[in-house]
Amino acid sequence: MLERLVERIIKNKNKEEQRTKVGQLAGVLGLVSNVVLFLGKLLIGFIASSVSIMADAVNSLSDMISSVLTLIGFKIAAKPADKEHPYGHERFEYISGLAVSFVIIIVGVQFLQTSFNKILEPTDTIFSIRVFIVLLASIIIKIWQGKMYVGLAKKIDSQTLKASGKDSFNDIFTTGTVLLSALIEYLTNWRIDGFIGFILALYIIYTGIRMIKDFIDELLGSRPSDQEIQIMEARLANYPSILGYHDLLIHNYGPQSKFASVHIEVDACWSLTYAHQIIDMIEKDFQKNLDVDLVCHLDPVAIHDTQYLQVNEELTNILADLGEGLKMHDLRIKGNNTLQFDLVIPEGVTEDENQLLEEIRQLVIERIGNYHLDVRLDHNYLL
């Protein structure tokens, strides 16, 4: 049923409009279901005099606020690029998610105190069949809600909806714990409601802090997934006309605005026009098939120069002998006595960089000749 509804609202819409419509649908469905959950839990919480049920009700209230922020976030994120924001407004989705995270933490802190007070001054929880039915229905609704968020998140690749889905599945655990504690109090007369509420409040705070970290990472520019990197690398390796590539960099300004740059190694004997045709083909391929705006930088390689090939081979062997996973690219022989190249230092290398360069200089003098080294250190964290 949800699939049919989604297909109906995105029919005849472009990709950006589809994303906005699906995000807004998730916000509306989340808002309606969370209103029902909040009112039902709040009423039962008062009837049962249970602080843990009321804590769970306010957790649903925070989810209502999250749904509203989701609606606002997708609305603003859909705005086109303008003079002040040339890359669009899609990152506002992360800002709305960050606001949701702070709301969750505030709710958690408030109920931390409420639960602590009930630990100090415990009161009886009144359990009834109505309490059981409402809490069980809440769990069923949250299961549906979590699946709805996750399904729509996959459809539009939304971190905000993924976070909402994760929060919904977390709520299944919290509501289930509340239900279990009410049953235990009813069967044993142990007054554990305050303790359960306290634990849930800590869990709510932890969830909010974890979500803040995730959204801050997105705003700062987090590392792309290994799968995303592998897909791009596999595509680059599939072009037989180029000699190789390096310095692949990937960044985004929102789920729909992905950019990348890469250095493409080509035969130095190629004409500039032919080389441009090749990289132009690669850029168009990335845009069409991966929806990535790629910018290629040409690196001509003198593969027909005997001196270059000998120096390149020996320098590669020197770096291999040093270990540490060292690599180099952009080798140039300038004049008669200078080797210019970029030295790629993988993450985790602990040796002092100046000492490392000195070791390379000594080995170059011993095995290649009395060359001066002009080295640029390259720390590529996508490796």
UniProtKB/TrEMBL annotation:
Gene3D superfamilies: Cation efflux protein transmembrane domain, Cation efflux protein, cytoplasmic domain. It comes from the Bacteria. GO terms for molecular function: monoatomic cation transmembrane transporter activity. One of its GO terms (cellular component) is membrane. The chain crosses the membrane at residues 21-47, 53-74, 94-113, 125-144, 194-212. Its main location: membrane. Signal peptide: none annotated. Residues 29-220 form the Cation efflux protein transmembrane domain. It is a multi-pass membrane protein. Residues 224-300 form the Cation efflux protein cytoplasmic domain. It is found in: Membrane. Pfam families: Cation_efflux, ZT_dimer. Keywords: Membrane, Transmembrane, Transmembrane helix, Transport. NCBIfam families: CDF. Belongs to the cation diffusion facilitator (CDF) transporter (TC 2.A.4) family. This is Cation efflux family protein.
